[in-house]
Amino acid sequence: EGNFSEMLGGYYSMVFNPSDPGDYFITVRKLYGDIRDRHSFVSSSQGHMSSNISFLSNSHYGWEKMWSQQSIYAGSSFSPVWQRQHADYWHQDASWQRRTHWAGAAPIRVVEAADNQGDIVITLNSASLALRAEKLLDSQLTQLMANVQRSSRNAPKLVKAFLYGNESILSEIDLLESSTTNSTIIFEWEVSFMESGASVEFTVVGVDEQNRKYYSNSASNEIVELSLDNPASAVGQIYEDLTGTSASAEQIASLSNIAEGSDSVAEVVASLLASSPNMLENMIDLVAAQHIVYGQLFDSFEEFETITEYWLPIMNADGSEEPAKRFIDSLLSSSKYYETFRGSVPHLVGAPTFDKLVNYRENRDSFASRHFTIKYGRNPSTLQLKQASRRMLDYWSNNHEPGYWELATGLTAPQADSFTGFRRDTAQSRRPTPYEAGECAVDFIYELAKEFVYPRNQSYLSYTSNYVLRDSLYRPAALLYSLHRENVDISDKSVIQQARELQGLSINQVLASITQSSSYQRRLNIIFHEDSPEVTVLPSGLSNNYWKSMPWFGAFMDKEYPWIYHVDLGWMYSNGTNTGDIWFYSDNLKVGSEEIGWFWTNKHVFEGPSMAGSEYDNQRFIFLMRKDADGGQEGSWALLDITTGQATPYGWLPLGK
C-alpha cells in the first residue's frame, strides 16, 4: 500500500509514501535500462526503466537479485546498497534467466513521519550505572535510565518501554499513566557475557497508546570477557553462585577489589568467603537439613535451584533461625518423608493422660536414632539416645511448656490433649501456622545441622565433636552445587559421594579441586556452549551428550572442557571466548616430526582456502608460534591437512619477545 515516485531521473532512488505506519517489504531490482530488461519472463508491468543508463557497459545483464534492509521514516529515500558502486559490482551470469523473479524482499519498518516524532523524545541518561561504569562484569545487577520528554500535556503517552541490548530485549516495563511532560524510566538488567558478548549497545523503545514506537539514541559499554585467564572476571558470577543474589554496582566495586590479584578462580572464591564468613551459611543449612532428614541430597540441580531460589532470599532477609526451621518442617511433614519412613513424625511430647497409649520416650529414641544414624553413618550409643531425648524435653519445657510433666521437676496433673487438629508439641505462639512435624523434631534436626558449640566446649550430643560434618561434608557439598550448578548432575557419583572424597582437605584444597574440574570450567565454555546459535548437539542415546558440531569447525566432544576431542584433530586444549579469536594446544598435530603446540585460528580462517577443487576440502588455515634461536617468538601461517595432522608453514617471521 502507498505509492512510489521517481527521483533524479528514476535510477538513483525512490520515495516511498505508505498509507499507514507498519511493516512493509520492498524488493529492489537492478535494471539494465533497455530492451534487454524485457525478457520473456519479464513484463513491463513488473518493472522497467525507460531511460538508458549510459554508465553501464553492454556486458551486464539486469535483474540480478539484490536487496537490503533499512529502517526509514515515511518520505525518506530508500537507496539500495549497490547504489553508485562501480559497474563491476553487477555480475554477468547467464543463469539469471533461470532465477525466480521477486524472490526476496527487504523488510522495512515505517514509523510515523519525522514531524510526529517530536511529540516524544527519549534520551539515554549518561549518568546511568550501566553507562558510567568503566566496564560491566558478568552477573552484576545494573541500571539504565532513560529520560522521556513530551512536547506538551496533550502529546501521546507511553504505556510500555523496552530496553534493547545488541537488538535483543534485556528488560521491559509497563508504565503508569502520567500527565507530566518530563519523566524517567529506570530499567534493571543482569549483565550476561554469554548473551551480549564483549560489548553491549543500548537502545530504548517506547510504545504509546496507539502502538506507535519512539526510539532513543544509542549508547554502549564494554563487558569484561569471562575467561579462566582472568579469574577476577568471574567475581560477579561467583557472588551470585554463593548467595543466590546478583551483586549491585557498589558490591561489584568492593568484590573486584577483594578479588584483585587472584591467580585462580579458587583464590577468588576463597577471598570472597574470607571477606564475608557467613556468606555460605544459609546454603549449608539447607544442604545439611536435606541430608539429615532424608539421608540423601537433592535429586538434581534443578531441585536444589528451586529450593535455594525460594528459601535463600527469605533466610538472608530474616536473619533468624525461623526460616531454616520452617524449611526443616517442610521436609519432615512432606509426602516424601512419609513414603520414605512409612509414616509421619510421631508425637514426641504429650499429655500424661495418653502415656499408656503413646510411648513418648520410645518415639523420641526412635526419631533421634533414625536421624543420628543418617548423619553419622552409625547407631547412637545408649548415652547419646538418653541425651537426645533429654535435649528435646528441655527445649520443650524451656521454650513452650514450663514444668513439663515428663521431667523430674514437672507437674503430674493431667493436661488436655488431642490427636486431631494441632499436635500437642506445636507452639501456641506459632498458630495458625505451627510446625506440622512438631517443635521438638524440628529443633532436633536444626541442632544436628548447625552443630553449635555450647559452654565448656560441649557439643549438642556427647562424643560427636570429633565428627564435625558441617565443614567437612556439607560445606563442600554446598560449594559443589553452587559452583558446578547444572554440571553437578554430570558426574557418575552423587554429590554426597563427591563431597566425601573432599573430606580431610583444607578449604583451599577443596576450592582448587572444585574449580579446576571440567564441571566448573565447562561453565565458562562460551564458544562451544549448547545455547550458542552456531552449535548443534548431535543425536545420541546417552543421557549426558557432549557431542556437538559447528559448521565451520566440525564434530567434537567437550565433556572434559577446556580439553575437547575433535573427530579429525584429536584432543586439543581450547582457550577463547568468541569464534573470532581462539587458541588451541595440540600435542598430536605435527610440523614434520615436531609437535605444533599452540596455534591460533578463528571461524573465518579455519573454514579453509577459498579455492575450487575437492583436493582442498581437508585443508585448514592456522597460525603457528614457536620460540626462535634468540629466545623470542616467531610465527607463520600454515596449511593444516586434517586427514594427516600435518601442517605446512608458509614461512617463519620474527614476532619479538
What fraction of residues sit in β-strands? 15-25%
DSSP summary, beta strand count: 26
In oligomeric terms, what are we looking at? single chain
Overall radius of gyration: 35 Å
Share of helical residues? 25-40%
Mean pLDDT: 80
Provide a quick synopsis of the model:
The chain is of the alpha+beta class and 657 residues long.
Structural features:
657 residues, single chain, eleven-stranded antiparallel β-sheet, four-stranded antiparallel β-sheet, 28% helix, 26 strands, 18 helices, disordered N terminus
Structure description:
The chain is of the alpha+beta class and 657 residues long. The protein contains 18 helices and 26 strands. Strands 16, 17, 18, 19, 20, 21, 22, 23, 24, 25 and 26 form an 11-stranded antiparallel beta sheet that branches. It has a 4-stranded antiparallel beta sheet with strand order 10-9-12-13, with no helix packed on it. Strands 1-2-5 form a 3-stranded antiparallel beta sheet, with no helix packed on it. Strand 17 (547-550) and strand 18 form a beta hairpin. The chain starts with a strand and ends with a strand.
Write the layout of secondary structure elements.
Elements lengths: L2 E5 L5 E5 L4 E5 L45 E2 L3 E2 L27 E6 L2 H4 L2 E5 L4 H4 L8 E10 L7 E8 L2 E7 L7 E9 L2 H4 L2 E10 L4 E10 L12 H9 L5 H11 L5 H11 L5 H14 L6 H18 L3 H11 L2 H7 L18 H17 L5 H18 L39 H12 L2 E2 L3 E2 L9 H16 L10 H7 L5 H10 L1 H4 L14 E2 L9 E4 L3 E4 L5 E4 L3 E9 L2 E11 L2 E8 L1 H4 L12 E9 L5 E9 L4 E4 L3 E4 L1
Parallel strand pairs: 4-6
Antiparallel strand pairs: 1-2, 2-5, 3-6, 7-8, 8-11, 9-10, 9-12, 12-13, 14-15, 16-17, 17-18, 18-19, 19-20, 20-21, 21-22, 22-23, 23-24, 24-25, 24-26
Helix pairs in contact: 6-16, 7-9, 7-11, 7-13, 7-14, 8-9, 9-13, 11-12, 11-13, 12-13, 14-15, 14-16
